[in-house]
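Batch manifest, entry 17 of 40.
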Amino acid sequence: MGDKRGISATVAIILIVLVTVAAVAIIWVAVVPMIRDNAVFQTFDINLVIETEGGYTFYDSDKGMLCLQVRRGGDEVNLSRIEVEFVYNGTSLEDPYNFSGTEIPSTNEAKTSCFNLSNQGGVPDSASIAPVFISGNKEIIGDPTSKIDSFKEGVYTSTECSATVPCPSTTYSTVCDGSNNVVNRSTSYSCVGGSCAESSGDVVLQDCGASGGTCSAGVCQSPQYSNPISSCGETLSTPSATYDLDQNIDTGGVSGTCLTITADNVILNLNGFNIEGSGSPSSSESSGSDSGIYVSNVNTFYINGVGGTISGFTEGIYAYQSKGENIDRVRVEGNHWGIYSKSAAMGPGSSYYNYIQNSHMIDNSGYGIVIEGGDGDKGGGYYDYIQNNTIKGNRERYSGYGIGIFNSPAVEVISNDIGDNYYGVVYYDYSNYGVISGNNITDNSYPGIYIYNSYGDSSDENNYFKIEGNNISDNGNYGVEIENGDYLRIYNNEINDNQYGGIVTNGWSESTNDYANVDSNRISGNGLVENSGYGIKMVYVNNWVLGTGGSASPNNISNNYWGINIGDGSNFEIKDTIVCGNSDKDLYCDSGASYSGTGSMNLFGSISTDCTSWPYESDYDFCPGVCPDNDGDGYTNSLCGGEDCNDKDENVKPGVMENCNDGQDNNCDGYCDYSTSACWDGSPYTGDPVYCLD
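Output type: structure tokens
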């Protein structure tokens, strides 16, 4: 084999290093001089000095104004501006101040400019100046040429601001806004009439109250709770104690009750935190075994949500045999029952009140609020309030309620937004003396309000069951349905565009609706579906009064299929009621119905021919501009200028044969039967004609 030779690795590394050093030397010797020869470096000798003698440099502590006199030397440099830097607590102000334009001193000249530092909190630690000039298309800031760190006190006599004395720059600070929020506050100034006008704006950075904290010195301070709750499974058993959630809590994805209250006068604050269950609520009552909060046999309790949500349980809140319920600002969502109050036996003379208010019951699969087996008594001074809540999307087919009141008297439902449930509000089985007032009850699949076997106080009209001042509209069934509801007052409601009817009494002969006053309502646009809609349907109604007579705001029933439908009933009165412009009949009577009524001061348009017992001609006037043909015989009513002398009988009209034996004018010529010789031949012994023309 031949002899092979090569260099070692060590020698190779040494050679690489030597080559690199040689290359650097070549660049340093040859290239750098070329760059130096072709570059232009300008050096300026600018002498700017802050003059401290003569009284022109001073600080006015009352006005926060600082004036500087700057003297310039003999240079001829074209200055763009002179930058002034103020330092506070070792930090320069973010936005520098300047001498600019005519404020810049010329060669061998001194000029004074004043600066508004009133928003900086006092005199600065120091002030320095630096020249600024233009080189090519760039602004170059030179090194500071003069600096002072003490300022004589002086008096500023000019206006606070002007074209040459600007207001302070915008400042930014992190502060509390008075609503328990941490905010970034910007404060800006504008010169108005020689004075600096201040304006500010806030951007919220953090809501301290959302976590139960407080804002102090621009920072959220965590609350200090005596009884913090950090997990499910706790029993709140200390009387008159306050408990606070300090975080979101849950059951770990399994069924079960999260918190239980067993002591009187307990306050539970959710502080905006959430309580979450399994997310698989049962449609069967859990009796407190799967409740977000279970309250058992206590006198008075408080649940304050402050935005907290309870979700995923069979009952969001379940109160059993407890009184003095106070539930406020809670969101109860995605349970089967939102809030379920059962057997709240308050007792005579107890002066207990149950409040459910300012809360949201949303998208619970069965019911929003249920009160069952309560014993409220207005005369005794104890009853239930459900007010200022939003109750929507709670539905179980055929039985889901926004609010369901069962066998619980003296419950008031006031100023709630109740919509998109299966039923809106239900009072059932002796839920007497109820009040439904000022609510927005819309878009529910079945009746907006349903009353069954529930009554007012027969001895006191002020204690009637009241439905007043509500908007009851766009529900998929009736606006108000009443089965066996006595001593009612239905007043000043807007009942519009419900699918099958506005106010409907429904039931059977044994289930009558007695003693009601219906006044000052606007009932329109109901039941334009399948020819079955009513403004008001009165069936099995006794002793009802529609209108008060002479009311400043009469019932106005229009644009329905039938305005008023009368069925079996007795002793009703319709007065001061306007029933006009309904698409089929303004007044419709069921064929064969047994009823008796009176009326006065009404306006009707068309009246069905089955209304034989009522109304009488003295009970009403025709609607403006309307002269009806109620019997459809082609002739309008003679009472409003037409030719039909009996607008309830299609066989009575001009030109027909006179029936000599029926006691009426059949052809509307002013004569009938025995009053005309044509119906009698003058002899009692010969046959008279049965029909004749008179």
